[in-house]
Amino acid sequence: VEEFIAAMAGNEKKMNQGLITPLIDHILEARGLNARGWAVTPDAFRPDALPLHFSMNYKLIDEHGRQLDMNRSLVALRGEWGKEAKEEFAELHETPSEYTQLTDWTFGELPELMEVPVGKQTVIGYPALSDEGETVSLKVFDSAEEAAETHRKGLARLFMLQFKEQVKYFDKNVPGMSQMGMQYMALGTTDELKRQIVDLTFERACLSEPLPADAAAFKARCAEAKARLGLIMQEVCRMVGAVLTESQAVSKKLPAFKAHAAATQDIEAQLKRLLGKRFIIETPFERLQHYPRYLKGIQVRLDKLKADPARDTRLMAEYAPLWTNYERRFLQLAKQGASDPQIEQFRWLMEELRISLFAQELRTPVPVSTKRLQKQWEGIQHG
Description:
By secondary structure, the protein is mainly α. Helix content is 60%, strand content 8%. It has 16 helices and five strands. A three-stranded antiparallel beta sheet has the order 3-4-5. The protein has a two-stranded antiparallel sheet with strand order 1-2.
């Protein structure tokens, strides 16, 4: 242990990889096991097999100092008590009237967190702007994640309130709107599509990190965004147009493959995941840019399916266990109201794996294979 700690000292890059990966590297290197052809895999380390006293024990205390619950899993505690705690916190911290119905940044500097008295204790609260439609208000949340999500929407609304003329103009002048509206018909109305395009345009123009935290920074960001809104709107429309065009091409092609039930069901499920009603605003922009390639990949897959159905079946069997692992973990997290950036990243790597397996000629931005992702999954599970 001492030897490992000394080896890690000052090596920030390795320390950011968690514990298991650097520990494996150290064991193989320090003991010369590499040269002997030995391998140590992440599944050799089993946190669940450790004696309980090696895990942190969390106590849930109310405002009077009484213990309500205790568990070694913080996620389980949050799952059981989170809703109740959130409601209680919201009741205790109603927004003062001077921080409601805001249409401009008139509330001084916005701190990242604040101390809030609850009974005899002090707890941490996270302030955020909340979108109320025609105005915004300042609210305090008990969770940093919820505050961040609410704040982005509230801040976007505050920017849009400064750009009323541009919003009015975009309402009538979205490039290529009539054609995109027809292509989007299976998912929703033209107005719903337009709303998402306008929202994404403002998000791209105004919400780059670091987000403004005071009136001066907000005003400066407004000035920067004003010059770029038109160009960004065109860029967003080009990309959304490409996605909808490729999606329409898949929809036209798919009915001819009804005889290949397993493949078409798999593709339909993939399309449903990618193209929900609000996919434009709910998909991270850097992922959305890859959608045309993902949809082209489906068309290439269908062409190859016609020539060699057995190959498609074999590749699906290779893909399926990894997807099942991901889906099981995703549903577990969703039930607990939690999220995990590693699981989110893995989900998009699975999209790249589909390209690598079924439409290799379209290339992937990073090297992916079933073997690589299997290894990565083991690392996520045991990291």
